């Protein structure tokens, strides 16, 4: 009987992990479609991205329910407990990534509809979004392979993204002073959303460190994290 319970428990854990990877696939699809829409200033694709965010939300609720059920029924300990807690944290960041992508799609759709912006005018946001692609892939690969050292690479990528975001923000502020009724504010909001996607990717890597090492580095300075690897 105990072997049967143990086998069923591990099946539940594996199903949760599989569902997380399915959620990951949706996020990657959403990001890819948004970049595609920016290339062509395509309102239809952007509208589809907004619609598909519901699927991400539904998966988050489903996975969270499964985690709560495992905690109550199985009362996991040690590594299994850390896995369930890590999954609970990761899906929050994934869902918020989905929200940020949806936010970008909504703002871009509005700009195309109201201001008839071209793909060239969306270039800066497109560039920031492109910078989040390797961050997303590496952080999710780190979760799949339990690679805690990916945090070092992600921290460097996040620094580059933050620098690009701040540089573009400075340029946008100058532009907005000259043309306060233009597209500057909408672009600023989209750029901020792209920067937040990078932050959530970094958060996922921090959760992986907790899963592998049992250490919470969410509020540890970057330099201190490097010393531990």
TrEMBL record:
Database matches in Pfam families: PhoU (PF01895)
Subcellular location: Cytoplasm
Residue ranges of every copy of the PhoU domain listed in the record: 22-105, 127-208
GO cellular component: cytoplasm
Keywords: Cytoplasm, Phosphate transport, Transport
SUPFAM superfamilies associated with the record: PhoU-like
GO BP field: intracellular phosphate ion homeostasis; negative regulation of phosphate metabolic process; phosphate ion transport
Family affiliation: Belongs to the PhoU family.
Function: Plays a role in the regulation of phosphate uptake.
The protein's assembly and partners: Homodimer.
Name of the protein: Phosphate-specific transport system accessory protein PhoU
């Amino acid at each position: 009987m105990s072997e049967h319970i143990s086998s069923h428990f591990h099946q539940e854990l594996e199903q949760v992990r599989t569902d997380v990877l399915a959620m990951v696939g949706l996020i990657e699809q959403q990001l890819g479609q948004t970049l595609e829409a920016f290339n062509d200033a395509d309102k239809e694709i952007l509208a589809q991205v907004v619609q598909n965010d519901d699927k991400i939300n539904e998966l988050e609720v489903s996975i969270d329910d499964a985690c709560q059920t495992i905690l109550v029924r199985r009362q996991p300990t040690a590594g299994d407990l850390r896995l369930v807690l890590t999954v609970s944290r990761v899906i929050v960041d994934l869902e918020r990534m989905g929200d940020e992508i949806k936010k970008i799609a909504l703002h871009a759709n509005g700009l195309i509809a109201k201001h008839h912006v071209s793909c060239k005018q969306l270039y800066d946001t497109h560039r920031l979004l492109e910078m989040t692609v390797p961050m997303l892939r590496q952080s999710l690969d780190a979760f799949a392979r339990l690679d805690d050292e990916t945090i070092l690479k992600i921290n460097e990528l996040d620094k580059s993204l933050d620098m690009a975001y701040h540089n573009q923000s400075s340029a946008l502020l100058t532009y907005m002073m000259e043309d306060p009724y233009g597209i500057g504010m909408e672009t600023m909001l989209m750029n901020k959303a792209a920067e937040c996607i990078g932050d959530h990717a970094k958060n996922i890597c921090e959760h992986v460190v907790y899963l592998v090492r049992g250490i919470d580095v969410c509020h540890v300075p970057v330099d201190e994290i490097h010393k531990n690897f």
